[in-house]
Amino acid sequence: MTTNRTEIYAGGSWLEAHASARVTMTNPATEEIIGTAPDADSTDVHAVVSAARTGFRESGWRDLTPLQRAEHLAPFADHLRSRAEEIGSFITTENGTPAALSTAVNVFGGTSMLDYYRQLAGSLEMEDDRTSTIVRKEARGVAAMIVPWNGPMILALQKLGPALVAGCSVVIKPSPETSLDASFLADAAEAAGLPDGVLNIVTGGRDTGAALVAHRDVDHVSFTGSTAGGKAVGAACGAALKSHTLELGGKSAAIVLPDADLDLFLGSFGQLCLANSGQGCFLSTRVLIHRSLYQDLSERIASAMESARVGDPLDVDTMYGPLINVDAYRRVLDHIESAQSEGAKLLTGGGRPSHLNRGYFVAPTVFGNVDPSMRIFREEIFGPVLSLTPFDDDDDAVRLANESDFGLGGMVFTRDLDRGNAMARRVETGSIGINGYTLDVTAPFGGYKDSGVGRELGPEGIEPFLQYKSIYQPGGAFF
Ligand code: NAD
Question: Which string of DSSP letters, residue by residue, matches 349-413?
């Protein structure tokens, strides 16, 4: 069954799009078309932004207290949770994420962010009465949210929770690969009684995103996507003097120290380094191993990946599904080829699994003897390709971890917590885990270097959606 949507969501209603062009969604596991959605043009973008502007100025939304706004987040989250399996599986047909992971991350992970910001709203003071000045926090206005396909719902909710508590209205632009699941958010907004125009959705590709960023009535841009996309968005925002945050690519390092609990590492690396077939921003796709463990551990890593189950992402036993599309499939194979020609040692994988004759599948692939000069060490592959590199001591490990244009995630495996934390402090990255990597909604998340600008999550995640106003009271003195 295919779903062909012809509308954009503006001002609380689905309205026929002006554009006749369409983006097409293809199930990456079967290569079958599952639906289409408007490839919105500048007229459509103007319609959603105008609806958001009206929602911001005239619906009364911005005049509510954070707590009053946050009251809408509970029914919003409840609605999504009540349809968890349906949403998770639907996203799986769009992007190939194994269904259990898709539901856990997009629905339960995403709604936990709404729960967190609902609770935080109680402590958000919008006015602070200083000696002779009232300092106000005000919502920035209309926030554009541009999201990628790899975690379409969680990445939208990560932005939506703080934006709504701050008092912004929003326009969400999903990725062209995952344009259909955003309708669940429109349903949730209606179930939650959000005023019309507070949440709007426009579908399309890069040009639609660029038109949204350029629209003069968009006050803030919250972008998650590739580093190349982020640079273009950052440049456009700079030219228009628009505030923005950029959550971008990564190439994180897992450091395995000589005293590491290897069973712990081996039990978790398949998810922490290659979940979603390596299509995750913070995954540690570079594994740095102390030389004393290198031979033994690299063999055990390769054999674990050899037996990992690859296939239909709707099957509960599947560990790894397909890549998002044919371009990604070709890009990953190109990286594999280049790694071999640069002298890396292929330990397992290296191409399409022999039992799968359709879909964009690449077997989990492990390369040993990877040198920092090689492309697979430096570039974000966004596929199931792990590179293993030996190191000699702690300084060497930190040097290798930092030899990257990115700085998003990372891990240190050690039985010595003090040593692990000392090393974590030296790695140039926005987040890093000891003996694992568990995202914490109460702590800021974001990138160093080419991995981004600004932070999401935690109390810090609200800041980008606010601006400050000082109202000087009569009789105040400068000196
Ligand atoms: P992408 O940059 O191609 O697209 C992301 C979104 O931006 C899409 O909606 C796309 O239509 C839009 N877009 C692209 N170029 C644009 C432009 N110039 N102006 C306006 N909009 C534009 O990225 P992708 O391939 O969809 O996603 C994968 C990338 O996202 C990876 O690099 C991954 O690491 C990154 N990512 C980062 C995080 C994070 O939190 N740091 C989370 C998930 C994914």
Answer: --S--TT--SSS----EEEES--TTSHHHHS---SSEEEEEEESSHHHHHHHHHSSSEES--EEE
Distance, in Å, from the CA atom of 100 to the CA atom of 110, rounded to the nearest integer, reads 14
Task: For residue 342, indicate whether it is catalytic.
Answer: no
Q: What is the DSSP letter of 344?
A: P
- Over residues 265-290, the pLDDT tens digits come to 999 999 999 999 999 999 999 999 99
What are the CA-CA distances from residue 240 to residues 26, 235, 258 (Å)? 35, 9, 51
Best CA proximity match to 157, nearest among 121, 205, 204, 118: 118
Residues shown for the chain? 479
Nearest to 385 by CA among 286, 294, 296: 286
Probe ligand 1: pick from 45, 149, 150, max atoms within 8 Å of CB? Answer: 150
Whole-number Å distance between alpha carbons of 222 and 172: 10
List all residues 6 or more positions away from 422 whose beta carbon is below 8 Å from its beta carbon: none
Distance from the Cα of residue 46 to its chain's centroid = 26
Mean pLDDT of the chain: 98
Please tell me what DSSP assigns to residue 289. Answer: E
pLDDT digits (tens, 9 = 90+) for 194-222: 999 999 999 999 999 999 999 999 999 99
Residue 459 CA, ligand 1 centroid: distance in Å: 24
Dist. CA 312–CA 322, nearest whole Å: 8
206: CA distance to ligand 1 center in Å? 9
In the reported structure, the alpha carbon of residue 401 is separated from the centroid of ligand 1 by a whole-number distance in angstroms of 24
Is 237 considered catalytic here? no
